[in-house]
Description:
This is Reverse transcriptase domain-containing protein. It comes from Graphocephala atropunctata. Pfam families: RVT_1. It is a single chain. The chain is α+β, with helices and mostly antiparallel strands. The protein has one domain (about 1-245). The protein contains eight helices and five strands; from the N terminus they run ααααββααααβββ. It has helices spanning about 1-20, 50-60, 70-75, 80-95, 130-150, 165-185, 205-215, 220-230; strands at about 105-110, 125-130, 230-235, 240, 245. α2 packs across α4 (about 80-95) and α7 packs antiparallel against α8 (about 220-230). The protein is globular. The relative contact order is 0.20. The model has no long low-confidence stretch (mean pLDDT about 90).
Amino acid sequence: xxxxxxxxxxxxxxxxxxxxxxxxxxxxxxxxxxxxxxxxxxxxxxxxxxxxxxxxxxxxxxxxxxxxxxxxxxxxxxxxxxxxxxxxxxxxxxxxxxxxxxxxxxxxxxxxxxxxxxxxxxxxxxxxxxxxxxxxxxxxxxxxxxxxxxxxxxxxxxxxxxxxxxxxxxxxxxxxxxxxxxxxxxxxxxxxxxxxxxxxxxxxxxxxxxxxxxxxxxxxxxxxxxxxxxxxxxxxxxxxxxxxxxx
Length: 247
């Protein structure tokens, strides 16, 4: 059962990608000509102890264990003893721009939705990445986000994954535009798109190309390359584990 569900998770993502695989052959720079390249390039800054303390404290309380048996709660409880070695490892990663292979493994747990319990499509896969990996990702995210903001790359219409913005503020903005058009007696069109397997179908080659265009050059770009490639997952059902499969 775990291996069958793992096969399903891997195959469904590939099927979605293959359905529009021609898009991956497009030159992304063609679509970026309207955006001026940034004047500065991303440079990693050394992570300080206070930075790491704030990141660990901001982690949500969770007992969910990764494949190493670690959870957010465990890391937060042991933080005083872990900060120095963890800080050393993170800054070493930024120095050499290589993401550790051992942290590119995911534990996937299927959560039943409804319908036939013997049908894999009736389960929602919940992926649990290593807690240490999440901390490193946060360090990367903050520095990349600061670079993008400094160079005014992120659109003001981008509501996802930005501080103080959410689906609620996005809806408020849409309603405001609708009311404004209504009062001005103007026509207004609204297009809503729901992407299937949106994150699973992101083309890594195009993503790296765009990052490079926006000032993430080598060797910093290599950290993103090694983060995205060679990732593996295994499915765990009632204590039974599947074999690893590359994502």
